[in-house]
Amino acid sequence: MENLLGSHVGLEDFIFAHVKGNQKEVNVYKSEDSLGLTITDNGTGYAFIKRIKDGSLIDAVKTICVGDHIESVNGENIIGWRHYDVAKKLKELKKGESFTLKLIEPKKAFEVEQRSKAGKSSAEKIGTGRETLRLRSKGPASMEDMPSETKTKAIEKIDDLLELYMGIQDIDLATTMFEAGKDKGNPDEFAVALDETLGDFAFPDEFVFDVWGVIGDAKRE
């Protein structure tokens, strides 16, 4: 309420109130290796769908939306799992087979309008559930514009490198690494930035160099 009264949150904003809404069980045939799904969590054991890539396998399943809480995969309860564990579980599902997701829709409050599109008519509302869900430790969840295609591809490549070197996929971590390097002039500056922001991970030099290569390619496009 303090944020609302202080004009940090507008009445035209879209807010997810993550209390239990409608439950739904969805069967999906995994015809491709990639589902086009990005997972996040709130740090207390609840995983949510953060992003659905346009044109992806999941994008074609219109009953699955950004903001849905994933309760179980093929009957296995995943409450308590971190988002990268859920992502790994989904990635390991066999191609050519069907799987079942048990989802819970969040309660929604207020109408939807992207903050980055301020000034556009109120008729240009979000209603598709195909944008990006941003969860914050303080303040409300919000919907944000998806990044450019070049940035998205670079972050996905970094995410793949994370899996190669660390055995996990974490799109939030990959995004943080991209942001740390996008304005750096050389790999040494990038390495220093990584140490400042993500020093606890102790990334190997070879990995840092490979990530810098991805960022450099993106900057040249």
UniProtKB/TrEMBL annotation:
Residues 25-92 form the PDZ domain. It comes from Gulo gulo. This is PDZ domain-containing protein. InterPro entries: GH2_GIPC, GIPC1/2/3, PDZ, PDZ_sf. Belongs to the GIPC family. SUPFAM superfamilies: PDZ domain-like (SSF50156). SMART domains: PDZ (SM00228). Residues 129-150 are annotated as: Disordered. Pfam families: GIPC1_GH2, PDZ.
